[in-house]
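are you around this afternoon, could really use another pair of eyes. what follows is a protein written twice so to speak, once as letters and once as structure tokens for the fold. i want to understand how the tokens follow from the sequence so walk me through it. anything you notice is useful, everything is just below.
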Amino acid sequence: MQKRLMQQVGAEMVGTFAMVAAGCGAIMVDSLTGGTIGHMGVCAVFGLVVMAMIYATGHISGAHFNPAVTIAFAAVGRFKWSKVPAYIAGQCAAAVLACAALRYLVGDAAGLGATQFSGPLGQAIGIELLIAFFLMFVITSVATDGRAVGQMAGPAIGGTVALCALFAGPLTGASMNPARSLGPALVSGSIEGLWVYLLAPVSGAFLGARVYEWVRCDSEEAVDAEGCC
């Protein structure tokens, strides 16, 4: 593996580890302490950790932290397909490691923050597809369009994560991210319905990136969705 790609994958692993450890950890702590964090608090944790890790690693790897984002960027020509397997492997490995660490440090509370849907299957698929669409639409804007304010990528993306989690969390867990769902599912051994969280976010992210590319209106400046390390 080339040195630059190793550095980028390493940054993706750190960011994904932090996101899963903080977000799923908040769910677990909330369960253990009788709801002291609350739903809004959990949503805020996910949004804040994503924002922080974007600022910390965005200039290195592009701060995907999400296989659906990586695949969507590649599908619209904003990321090299040759890097996709390494990015996804790093993201998924980091998510599993984060959940293993949570299990060791905190225990098995709340299924390690595993995502589960409470309503019909069709509803779960539709919601996960929809929120992944909105997330990727925002990401594509701030990450690839030179007219967007790049310095606001952290708050814009982190805020979108928190917003989607606020309304979709009680219904599906608001994953938007196959790695985020895969980690707790594998470590806890609860893989029922996991395929929804692997396929729906990828489909939604692809549509979100495609739609933004369509409405872009021929930007004079567009960049690739990777860092400059």
Remarks:
- The mean pLDDT is 93.
